[in-house]
Amino acid sequence: MPVNVLYCEGNSKSIDVRAIRQLLPKCELRPIGGKTSKFMESIIADRAINQNLAGLVDRDFDCRDFTCTNQPIPCVYENIQVGWSWERKEIENYLIDPQVVRRALRSKALRMDEYQAALRKASEDISTYTAARTALSCYGFKNFWGEQVGNTSYYFPSSRSLGKKACQDHIRNIVQQFKGDRIVTPEDVLNKFERLLPLFSTGGVRFENENFLTFFAGKDLLYIMRNSLREFGFETSNSQTSPQEVFLERVIKGMERAEEVWTWLPEWQELRNLIINSSF
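The chain above was modelled as a monomer; its predicted structure follows.
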């Protein structure tokens, strides 16, 4: 039997749930929190009630060296497959995809060549920071720095903290602050950063062919694009609402008005096939 209940991240009104609902309209979605051991254990325990239960989580930053296949990644906990993670880092990575933007904003005045140029420029701007975030994640450390953005839980650095020297300094400070009695040293993480940097830079395998849509953080790309989004007309008279929020809301609403949204991206189609054909 197909999966009929899907545990996911976010809350009932979050963009995660609203987007997934358009991909899996016949599957009951239950947002129960983030990707923690408790999340995974809840899926395993609750299969005693409904064996056709699975979970879907963000991939986040990790050290896996894989080739993009446009397929969800099996998510295993204590040797049990509990569901899948997205291949891309988070849901925003899909909502900024030019294919999705073009179809969701069909009649809106947005030149896709200008949008794609802004998206690539944003990727170039945060490539070094993304390599640093990934290096920190590889060793289990806090992987961001900067100022809090609005009233959210999201932080982003100033432009002067995005360069290589600033990233090295922040890596060193974070490791020294949080390593405790662990044997890892700042130099271990800095060496990992040096090895990752070419992969995330222009010409690197995690950058080119729009692979930045998989390996970079969608939220970071949106934030660095905020002025471009404003120029494209994604703003309101409400100063409390950011251009990023306006953009995402319009994309989500476009998806909610459309039919067969799961056909827009290969990974979305594959997720739907897995939900229909998997059993646990």
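The first helix runs from residue 15 to 23.
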